[in-house]
Design goal:
Blueprint lengths: L3 E6 L6 H12 L2 E4 L18 H6 L2 E2 L12 H17 L4 E4 L3 H9 L9 H14 L1 H11 L3 H4 L5 H14 L3 H8 L7 E7 L3 H17 L2 H10 L14 H8 L5 H24 L5 E3 L5 H12 L1
Parallel strand pairs: 1-4, 1-5, 2-3, 2-4, 5-6
């Protein structure tokens, strides 16, 4: 039999962290992070990391594992997460995987496709084009050859945009075609996938509230602190929603009220992309995190038995 894991997923701000923590406490489970931003040290407020006291009460894994200027991707995530899960299960504890980064979850469950190797010459050419024409131009070119990238690659994700263009230009086939051929079919675990959802207006209210709370609790100072540590605002984690806008405030490109409104809008767009990604998976069982909490707990207990 394959080892069992429980995955609790959903869009940003839906309530994954709170519910997973409560359920993990009830059955003495350990939590493995599947949020691509929470892996970075010093990025706390803008990533909504669980408070340290909660992480001490319930063991958490893969939070604060790399510095902002270190490389991290789905392959590294899969390697680390699978190792942590093995350790948890050997201790006899249930393993909960919690997060909203769909590619990381897909890689963990079904492995990664081989794909073409890196082409240094082509990569250098794309880097030059990036410097000359900007990331938006490269992103539009990518969408033209691979429309599905609009769903799973963010317009500000320089690393994945360049990699996707590299794959297309070196093989003549879009990255999505390689991924569909692979289909992440290896299936290393027996998985229960719990999806959390709310009415759109309710979710958007929570997004707005959380974004405003980030500003009140010091996100701007957190970004200033990162800059003071020597981390450039062009680093991948500092180009994510929230950090990018605060960086623009520091650079006097935007005023704080304008940056706040953009954060809200970009976070809503992120939530929409996450839901689009997850809705394509028929194995996900969808629940409201508060109204159906008992149903979720019963389903998990039955699965683990």
């Amino acid at each position: 039999m394959k080892p069992k894991i429980v995955i609790i997923l959903g869009p940003t701000a839906v309530g994954k962290t709170e519910l997973t923590l409560a359920l993990a406490q009830t059955i003495n489970a350990e939590i493995v992070n599947a949020d691509s931003q929470q892996v970075y040290r010093f990025l706390d407020i803008g990533t909504s990391k669980p408070p340290k006291a909660e992480r001490e009460r319930v063991p958490h894994h893969l939070i604060d594992v790399v510095n902002p200027d270190e490389e991290f991707n789905a392959a590294i995530y899969r390697q680390l997460a699978s190792a942590r899960i093995d350790e948890i299960l050997k201790r006899g504890a249930p393993a909960f995987v919690c997060g909203g980064t769909g590619l990381y979850l897909k890689a963990l469950i079904g492995g990664l496709f081989a794909g073409p190797g890196r082409d240094s010459e082509l990569r250098a050419k794309l880097d030059r084009e990036l410097a000359e024409t900007g990331l938006t131009s490269l992103y539009h070119r990518l969408i033209a050859v691979d429309p599905s990238a609009n769903t799973n690659i963010h317009p500000n994700d320089r690393q994945r945009i360049i990699r996707a263009l590299e794959v297309y230009q070196s093989t003549g086939r879009p990255l999505s075609a390689w991924q569909n051929e692979h289909r992440f079919h290896e299936q290393f675990y027996e998985v229960l996938k719990i999806g959390l959802e709310r009415e759109r207006s309710e979710l958007y209210d929570l997004i707005n509230e959380r974004t405003e709370s980030m500003i009140r609790t010091g996100l701007l100072d957190e970004v200033r602190g990162l800059v003071a540590r020597g981390y450039g605002l062009d680093l991948k984690p500092l180009r994510s929603v929230g950090y990018r806008q605060m960086g623009e405030v520091i650079q006097t490109v935007k005023k704080l009220p304008e940056a706040l409104e953009e954060m809200k809008q970009e976070t809503r767009r992120l939530a929409k992309r996450q839901l689009t990604w997850f809705r394509s998976d028929p194995e996900i069982r969808w629940f409201h995190p508060e109204k159906q909490k008992r149903k979720i707990a019963d389903l998990i207990e039955a699965f683990l038995r």
